[in-house]
């Protein structure tokens, strides 16, 4: 991965104007056609270059790629067709993906035109009794039938709820997340189209371009719950708390304050800590309700009649990555005792007694084995390693 200094040096050598954002270098885009404008500044053509990975995205001409690809495309500074070459390289797959997404979107039905049966099934399955149809219409939630593949490769159509992701300019649906509208299903409950393509932020098209703060939540229904009950804009992550894709970081660059509300479970709190480092700790705040019967998330707060505005307004800054407080440490330790099953590691198949003592292998945790010479430390550790290796653990 390139360092920030290397990226700055490359841009300066190519005379590409740039400034520092929260997570990206914001530059004038060399791929936009109007190169003859000598007075072009950063705000004319906005190219976001991730400070960690070097991946780039232009909000105007919609090109994107890796840092290596960016360097190759910029090598010949005098080649007036360089932007066209890049566009032609990207276009075939992009056009195919966008066409497929458009077909899905155009074939879907607005939620207000669906039958009462579909609406009842949606509210029952996802427990969204507190949401009204108007908010789903505002966020452009739709209904459709979509083919899913099972583990055997067979395809079958399923009723789905469609959540759209708009492009960086909020003008075109560039991706969709399709969630099965079925209660009992052992297969995957959702799919993303295009499969290997754009990942967006649901609800970004409802946010004022001049807004400086936003509530970031883990599910689409949480985003709508916040927007319905408060004056705060809200958006949700494409993959929940499982990951924070680098390509969504430029879409969060405009915000000076990001309020994270993921939930009270251990995994959600870990995700808050991890994501806040990527987003820049200084602008991240955490909603962490305390006391008895606290809501698990924004949707739960809506359904239980809680005051979402008060909960969000009470969000606290996330502490420095190198500093912790006794209160936070005590709370984290307490969580691990109460939710031991959530933080347990990979279990050994042949050593049940060891599982009861160590609770499995946890990544990043150090366990010390001691004993006299010849007690069998090496033999035991070898068998433990072999047991995990046979389970596919690296």
Summarize the structure.
34% of the residues lie in helices and 17% in strands. The protein is an alpha+beta fold.
How would you describe this structure to a colleague?
With 394 residues, this protein is an alpha+beta fold. It folds into four domains: 4-80, no CATH class; 91-198, no CATH class; 205-343, Dna Topoisomerase Vi A Subunit, Chain: A, domain 2 (3-Layer(aba) Sandwich), CATH 3.40.1360.10; 344-390, no CATH class. It is built from 13 helices and 15 strands. It has helices at 4-13, 67-74, 82-107, 116-126, 133-138, 220-229, 266-279, 298-303, 308-313, 326-338, 340-343, 352-358, 377-390; strands at 18-20, 24-27, 47-50, 56-58, 64-65, 109-110, 142-149, 155-166, 173-180, 190-193, 213-217, 234-236, 257-261, 284-286, 316-317. The strands form three sheets. It has a five-stranded antiparallel beta sheet with strand order 1-2-3-4-5. Strands 6-7-8-9-10 form a five-stranded antiparallel beta sheet, with helices on one face. It has a five-stranded mixed beta sheet with strand order 12-11-13-14-15. Strand 8 and strand 9 form a beta hairpin. The longest helix has 26 residues, at 82-107. Mean pLDDT is 83; it is low at 80-91.
Supply the key terms.
4 domains, 13 helices, five-stranded antiparallel sheet, alpha+beta, 394 residues, 15 strands
